[in-house]
Amino acid sequence: MTTHSTSSTPSHPLDSLGWTPRVEAAFDAVALSSEHVLLPARVSAARRGGAEIRLPGIRDAAFAPAVRRAAHTDPAAAPCSGDWVAVRRSGDDWLVEAVLERAGTLVRQGVAKDSHDQVLAANVDYVLICEAADQGPNVGRLERFLSLVWAGGATPVVAITKAELAGDRLPEVVELVESVSSGADVHTVSAHTGQGLEALAARLRPGTTWVLLGTSGAGKSSLVNAVSGHALMDTGEIRHDKRGRHTTTHRQLLALPGGALVLDIPGVRRIDVPGDESGVDRTFSDVLAHAERCRFRDCVHDAEPGCAVQAAIDEGELDARRLARWNRLRRESEWNRSRGDHRVREERTRQWKALDKAARDAGRRKRGHHH
Ligand SMILES: Nc1nc2c(ncn2[C@@H]2O[C@H](COP(=O)(O)OP(=O)(O)OP(=O)(O)O)[C@@H](O)[C@H]2O)c(=O)[nH]1
Ligand SMILES: [Zn+2]
Prior knowledge:
alpha/beta; CATH 2.40.50; Rossmann fold; 5-stranded antiparallel sheet; 13 strands; flat; disordered N terminus; binds guanosine-5'-triphosphate; binds zinc ion
């Protein structure tokens, strides 16, 4: 990697991993209360029962097999890609003592009966949502991705990839994407012609952490390579010979030459809208703005008198299909929330039962002593 140390200001050795004052404060709080000497490290890849970590000055990722203080019952508390952790040396191993508080996460909703939410990436500043210009675009998918990103607290940026393939349709594609991306910047790019790469590269500020989202073949890897000027990621053609993606040499925390970091997470196939409805609300903030002017507070924007949403549709300000998609995502979000609540309730009941039984057993033992 090229180093850009032309300025005289000494940079913190952790800067290249995305170290920030927020993370520093979180680390200090943990380190000060520990009896051990702890070092901060960043997780480049999560593994079952451990994590690959990066420490400054140590080239290769180390494997940290034990997670001491992360809750064992909740997989969401186990280290994931992008996490900052406090580690200590133990013989030849690094032990993860604590997972530091996260900001900006990407969470896969646990929708199956017993499934937990799974944190795919942590401490993410920006998510670049890639949608290929020659395939649609699929605005419904885009809205799902946007909801997911907003709910996790990261900032979405949209990239219309393979721009040159859209030909004359490009302006139409851009307009459509922009019409559903309220609040997110849209970049029109091509890894092949170089269109829009400079503008995008300017947004990849040093020390910021990015995740790329998009369907397989959307051009994510090609874009990272083109924007960084290096073949950092395997693209479609190369992978053909390798069979399958996450091979042994696969690095999940990539440092771009400009200083930004890219977390390469396994493909997000299913996009379940998070139960946290704030993501959907934020994605559809334009529709919500109309809804605020409806006559009735509990307006369902169907056929009520004085419905400002329907009025906006009649006036051509709002696409009726967008309203339909909003309703659908809100329902899904509500459903996922209630399932999550149900799971939490069941877990709590289980815990209470176990506690109750333990108390009864203890009581029985005690009484046994008296007799
Ligand atoms: N014409 C054209 N093709 C592109 C462009 N960017 C990527 N491609 C092609 O699209 C295909 C998929 O690109 P990748 O970069 O591997 O896509 P990806 O999103 O990383 O795919 P996954 O790793 O499977 O998620 C490859 O054959 C690329 O050559 C572009 O700007 N223009
Ligand atoms: Zn209404």
